[in-house]
Write a structure and sequence with these properties.
It holds the Pfam family SPOR. The protein is α+β, with helices and mostly antiparallel strands and 112 residues long. The protein has a domain at 40-108: Alpha-Beta Plaits. It is 28% helix and 28% strand. The protein is elongated.
Length: 112
Amino acid sequence: TLPRGMPVPPPQPQTLPTPVAAPAAPAASQGGGNRWSVQVGAFASENLARTTANQARDTVATMGTRASVTPVRQGNATLYRARVTGLTRQAADQACSRLRTRGACTVVAPDA
């Protein structure tokens, strides 16, 4: 503390370090390549899931896509996820835009 009557010196400006931008992630991890998919439903019937996945794949009609049906336990029941796989992020977005006219569609990220 300063003695009484002494003027308080003005605060000195502080210089902050210049922020450094974080390195950009590689394009492959951002895009995911052809590992994106779209889910067009989850059904109690494996046959209905397969039919729906095949119809969605045919609607998308992109080279390298596959219809995929995956069983998932939900409590005491099994649901079958109907997906179209082998898409890029952009193709998955476009596929869902087209498929939503027929029902639900969700873009699924790689490894989800």
